[in-house]
Amino acid sequence: MQLIKPNTNIDFVNKRKLALVFSAVLILIGLASLVIKGGPDYGIDFAGGTLVQVRFAVTTDAGAIKKALAGLKLRSPVVQSFGDNQNEFLIRVEKVSGGLQGLSTRIKAALEATYKKGNVDVRRAEMVGPQVGKDLRSKGLQAIFYAMLGILVYVSWRFEFRFAVGAIIALLHDVLITLGAFSVFGKEIDLPIIAAFLAIIGYSLNDTIIVYDRIRENLGKYNKESFAFIVNRSINETLSRTLLTSGTTLLVILALFVFGGGVIHNFAFAMLVGVVIGTYSSIFVASPILILWEQRKKKPATG
Could you tell me if residue 203 is inside a domain? Predict the structure, then answer.
């Protein structure tokens, strides 16, 4: 099945400067949001603390819940809605004494004093120490770093070093934009999101490798043509496959995002942004980097 005709010749290469501006704007917006907010919004996994998920049988809001918990004198409590259920909330506390079970019992008792018995259901309670959270955050970053390093070595061995540089820049581009989207939309970074970032890296690399493989084939086939022509021809030849793969993947992720519930909502959001940006970067970032490399290599020779 082909969505795009084999003889299609869309001029992607000449749009690379416009794409560069678009990517730069997205990355700058994300970085500005991170600076303004003082860094990513880490979840319990990385920041440490205690999380209690509560469902109410009556209509309420975050302000009323905080007021009901005021008597417990919790340190820096944060209350936010959870998932699609308007009466389900997450209560986050930095540090507590008395253990996890003691805290969830105290929270339930305090809420029942306001909302009456039977109207409050504690669905889940989790606790992560600050040192454990710091260690998990460090290992998550290491996982992303070693994945990038492994990709650099593999692509250099499979193709050439310039191809590896293009792939790594495209992957960094995808991760930065996805991270920026999390900051802009106020979503938390936790262990499942690190898994999503690694999945995005793998997906984006797979799409980039397909294009790179076609470029390598066409270098012999169109050896009298310019390198920019070969890159553009290769993108067009793989465009149908790219759109089919991305389209079917997006349908699954969209279903998870809409119907998956609050537990995997952030994971699905990361994948949704990552797949769209990863498809875009394999066309407008990874391949144009090769053209830039070729042009810089030829300058000294011309001089």
Answer: yes
pLDDT tens-place string over residues 136-146: 778 878 888 88
What pairing do the DSSP bridges indicate for beta strands 85-93 and 78-82?
A: antiparallel
User: Tell me, what's the pLDDT at 275?
Assistant: 92
- CA 262 to chain centroid, in Å, comes to 17
Q: Which letter does DSSP use for residue 188 in this model?
A: P
| Degrees, nearest 5: CA angle 226-229-232 | 150
Looking at the chain, the number of H-run helices and the number of E-run strands are 10, 4
CB neighbour list of residue 122: distance below 8 Å, 6 or more residues apart: 52, 53, 54, 104, 107, 108
- Cα Rg of the chain (Å, integer): 24
End of a domain among 71, 106, 128?
128
pTM above 0.70, yes or no: yes
What's the confidence (pLDDT) of residue 299?
63
Which runs of E-coded beta strand occur in the chain?
A: 49-56, 78-82, 85-93, 120-128
CB contact at 8 A, 72 and 112: no
Q: What is the pLDDT of residue 303?
A: 47
Provide the pairing of β-strand 120-128 with 49-56: antiparallel
What tokens were used for 14?
């000449």
The enclosing domain of 267 has a CATH number of 1.20.1640.10
Edge-to-edge strands, sheet with 120-128: 78-82, 85-93, 49-56, 120-128
CA distances from 109 to 50, 102, 103, 244 (A): 17, 11, 10, 53
For residues 87 and 60, give the distance between their C-alpha atoms in angstroms, rounded to a whole number: 6
Per the structure, the complete domain to which residue 256 belongs is given by: 13-42+132-302
Task: Give the number of domains in the chain.
Answer: 2
Strand boundaries in 46-173, DSSP class E: 49-56, 78-82, 85-93, 120-128
Is the domain of 167 the same as that of 261? yes
Domain boundary among 98, 128, 158: 128
